[in-house]
Amino acid sequence: MLSLQIHHRTTYRYRYPVVLGPHRLMLRPRESYDLRLLSIDLSATPEASITWAEDVFGNAVAMANFHTPVASLCIESRLKIELHAVPFPIFAIAAQAISYPFLYTDQDWIDLGALATMQSSDPSGRVATWARGFIHSKPTDTLSLLKDLCSGVSAWVTYRSRDDEGTQTPVQTLELGSGACRDFAVLFVEAARCLGFGARIVSGYLFDPDGCLVGSSGTGSTHAWAEVYVPGAGWITFDPTNRGVGGHNLIPVAVAREISQVAPVVGSYQGSPDAFIGMSVDVRVTT
Asked: Which residues of 112-125 are buried (b: 16+ CB within 10 A; e: fewer)?
């Protein structure tokens, strides 16, 4: 069991005072049998009215509404959690899903819905062709196939930190051969969907006490990874950026169909077109 503290600060700066629109904040970790949230302190400067709700995926969403023009905005969250995930998990995969290909039950298929359907455009089938290259025989071991796919992403794609907004399409990532953790996660999820799996994007934090993991800054950072639904085992965590399986060093905050749905902070402002100077994000994950 790990006791962790997470401090996440996002700062926006403007040349002139602007009127802030509502900001959507996804900063509260998803509690589970692997993660216990001990405390959360969410604040904004200037002060905001904050309300909480759950989205369609069960993520905790805070809406911050501001009342006065501002020249800067700082959003901070301070968390204390217990992480109980083990480094080398054993997955109790159902007998009918041990070998690939397998069929989800009709009920699972209905519930997975869009999570089992590719969401990005790929008219030439580039991603599907690439994904099928990891199938060495039929039948083949399901978990081994997913592990090979996870490792294959980082073998094909070189990690490159990107400060620009947005995410590359899986086709762009394959063609460029480089990307950030969010691009790795999207490529893995879409490739898994091409193979018939239900898969979803996860955003949250990476704990890296030794400072040796890809995509990490210091002992921790924001991060994106994936989960695949396998009958019996449930949602299995895959971190294609670090070829990881299981969530012993990952703190999930939000899950969704697409990466744009799990951004930590999303908002708008009204003001001069050249008012925006820039933003900075500082994250610390410590024991």
From this structure: beebbebbbebeee
